[in-house]
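Lecture 7 notes: from sequence to structure.
We start with the chain below.
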Amino acid sequence: MFFTMLMFLRKFSEMFFNLNCSCRTIAVLSLFLSLCACSEKSPKGPEKLSTVVVSGVVTLKGKPLADASISMHHSEGKVAPRGVSDASGAFVISTYGDKDGAPVGQYKVTVSQSVAKEISPGVLAPIPTEGIKTALPLKYERVDTTDITVEVKADQANSLEIELR
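Predicted structure tokens for the same chain:
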């Protein structure tokens, strides 16, 4: 490895002194960035916890709640799994990838629903002058006010039934 690096630096220095000033600047920056990227002391990302399948149905006053955002808040703050309900209120939770589930543990669950309407691709309708009204009680949208708690258990598919009143 050392010999390879030494040969690279020799060739680099030969090319370096044959370049104009702006090209030298780019070359020095490129060398610096490549050395930083190869550093063994580069920080690693957060550890990924193993997940188990989590799915369920969310209802409001007994009726399926479509387009609801379901967020799970881990009791130790380690992860924040999420899902979105379809027209039948069904959802599948994702943590690191699409529908990969959630790590085992205790969670508080928040549910919110976007009331923004898209009138054409990428264009949202203006907010009405009387404000935005939603049938979803606000207590379910905040971690400190929600009363929904769930436990995700190991070695099994976890099916949640979230009933909002």
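Points to note: The chain has two domains: 2-38, 54-164. The mean pLDDT is 85.
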